[in-house]
Design goal:
Two copies of one chain form a homodimer. By secondary structure, chain A is an alpha/beta fold. The first copy, chain A, is about 40% helix and about 25% strand. At the A-B interface, helix 1, helix 2, strand 12 and helix 13 of A face helix 1, helix 2, strand 12 and helix 13 of B.
């Protein structure tokens, strides 16, 4: 006889946690039709039971204070981890997996750090472990990479995967706001936290790129393998200059394959206004993929928020219900696996935007040109205004760029203000 | 013991058919790793064996002239139908399903017309029947709707799903080309056929909207249920006017839910430049979805072409290999099913763009305003230039619009030149 009910326990009833019962309730007929089962939240782990009583009553589930009330309950099929943080969540998920519960998580930090360990454990226990909501909230990018794009050869994944910084950069580009003004605006709207470090320094985006890289290339890297530069130092004058050259600044998570090695970075970059990513504005997210078969494709949607993120969690629950129904057990979310190989700096190719200050009013452009020529970086465009010079280049390797930057340090005529990658 | 090889026969070796062996060859290691199987084309049905000999030799498969050589071959697991057309393809697919072969097809006309019959037969035979490539070529939209978005409540699906017309409209908007000039340009690039009827009259897009509607709402409609208007009559002056108002014309396949009924149309429409679909240019396609949980999401990519479409076919083959591996049999591509209900004209709501010619030089704007007021259509903006008047309105039902159009016919001061929907 088929199992008619999938019983779920939720750990944490914050923003996302309170969206999950709402969606399960609203879509219950559809879910029952496509899975052949009811999916019901029966328990939720919360710190303060009093605070969440109304929610629990509305959706008819029980509030419990101890993880044991969940992992030791043989009735529970799935544990949804929404408490965030790394260590506590890791312990809870391991306990759940060890008790043969399927697990859904929206915890990017945890998955980027311990994804491999948890995936291995889930496989050993013959249960499912899904985390669609961990990357780009409502955008179904992980399941798309692991199913529809699974047989395509991916070369490039560019992501606008942090809504806070994208909102700030949109304000800077469209309204001429400074970094500080944009941050205040984001904080007022609740897009940025009081301490915005994780977002503005690119760490949040880097975690997501670690996960996207695992799905795109089968390679497991750690946060230390990602070159990270945040938006804190981005100057209004560079934003304006980019605009006049038909580019917009975006915080781009960039994961690319060069030969057999991959290179993963997070940094502000100039994106040409004709590029699909240039039109991803405010708090929205998008993941742009280049692959051998499909070519260019892009997946756009909200990167955060209660309902969008909860919708991804519910999609995972539906997938688990179908696995249970069809008796498909212990298949990893991402099956693709290759030995990790990082690309060398000599392989990583980019176009660059250089911004120099002219020192002592000496506009020694011939000298600057000869430094570029000596470094074998071809200049596409050189714009001279006031005491500043902007140089846009053709493609050159990261190694060549580094060498060139050293050569600039030794000249007394120009000072490097900034350098960014360009995506055309 | 696990089956180690999935044997495929391809019907037709045209543009897409020749892309499939190329992708299977190029991605063979990845495919073997994620499916645990080799996927190999072993036979292809072609009309003229001589013409395709080189391709067959290159990829080591056998050319056969008769469908019986395929459906009666017990070694063949999957039949990939790429011959196009409706009746012949329908017969071949039924023979294949009756012989317990899994089937993959890229044939939108067939699936929009006989999808239900073939899906039912596949289910009875306990085999898989997939057709990701039938809608929007390389964009993995059907599998996304049937998996990741399956538990979300979809309210609106807007598609730019015909590359030919999108290329033409881009030429008209960006280069000021007339319809006739844009058509010639599209034909020269191979984007439009000598007889462009299917594309420019919106029929190709309508077939795709039939399939998308089935996935989005579980409702099966036929081509007759789609209100179709092509781009043949679109005037350059409307394109220019739209541009000056910050809109671009796109051929929008629009499938929306009003209460419990759906309304499906294909027509040129004004899309605001801030809308994600406005930036989908040239031959590219995109599907924009509004749903209760996720909110707004968009899926962008190439709508046609050998490799993109073949990549979707290969994604279907990989899904079948996994079904075989995990012993998941006869699950329809789209499980969601609801009784079909079409929305009434009084329920279907739009904003409109009206273009009138002023007859006899009489600018009786008060009369025009009172006709709108009488019809209860609120005017948002009225632009008077020369002998023409443009009126942009707030939302009104299709029923109210029809009634209004009749009232205009009876006045001798204004003649309706065109009316289009607006998407903000």
């Amino acid at each position: 006889m088929l199992k008619r009910m999938l019983k779920v326990a939720v750990l944490g009833l914050g923003t996302v946690g309170s969206g999950v019962p709402a969606i399960l309730q609203e879509q219950k007929d559809k879910i029952e039709q496509i899975t052949g089962m009811k999916i019901a939240i029966v328990k939720a782990l919360v710190r303060d039971i009093e605070v969440k009583k109304a929610l629990a009553q509305k959706y008819h589930f029980q509030l419990v204070p101890d993880i044991k009330d969940i992992v030791q309950d043989p009735e529970i099929d799935v544990v949804v981890e929404l408490i965030g943080g790394i260590e506590q969540a890791r312990i809870f998920i391991k306990e759940a997996l060890n008790a043969y519960k399927h697990v859904v998580s929206a915890n990017k930090d945890l998955i980027a750090t311990y994804g491999e360990e948890l995936t291995t454990l889930a496989k050993e226990q013959n249960v499912s472990f899904y985390y669609e909501a961990a990357v780009a909230g409502g955008i179904p990018i992980l399941r798309t990479l692991s199913s529809s794009l699974s047989a395509d050869g991916i070369d490039e994944v560019l992501g606008i995967v942090n809504g806070t910084t994208n909102y700030m950069l949109t304000q800077m580009a469209q309204k001429g706001a400074t970094y500080a003004e944009a941050l205040v605006a984001a904080q007022e709207l609740g897009f940025a936290e009081a301490d915005p470090t994780n977002d503005v320094d690119g760490i949040d985006a880097a975690y997501k790129m670690v996960i996207l890289s695992a799905f795109a290339y089968g390679m497991r890297i750690s946060l230390d393998d990602v070159k990270i530069q945040g938006i804190r130092m981005l100057q209004s004058q560079d934003v304006k200059m980019a605009n006049s050259l038909d580019y917009v600044f975006k915080l781009i998570g960039c994961s690319r394959k060069f030969d057999e090695g991959i290179d993963v970075t997070v940094a502000p970059a100039l994106v040409h206004k004709n590029h699909q990513l240039a039109n991803v504005n405010n708090e929205m997210n998008a993941v742009f993929v280049k692959s051998a078969g499909i070519g260019e494709s892009m997946y756009y949607g909200p990167g955060a928020g209660s309902l969008p993120t909860a919708a991804s969690v519910v999609a995972d629950l539906v997938a688990i219900a179908q696995n249970v129904q069809y008796k498909v057990l212990g298949i990893p979310f991402n099956i693709y696996k290759k030995p990790t190989k990082l690309a060398a700096d000599s392989q990583v190719i980019n176009q660059y935007y250089f911004h120099f200050e002219v020192l002592d009013g000496k506009k020694q452009f011939e000298q600057l040109r000869s430094l570029f020529a000596k470094a074998q970086i071809k200049i596409k465009e050189m714009i001279d205004y006031d005491t500043q010079v902007i140089v846009l280049t053709y493609e050159a390797s990261a190694k060549i760029k580094s060498k060139f930057l050293k050569s600039i340090e030794s000249t007394s005529d120009f000072k490097l203000i900034s350098v960014y990658n360009i995506f055309d």
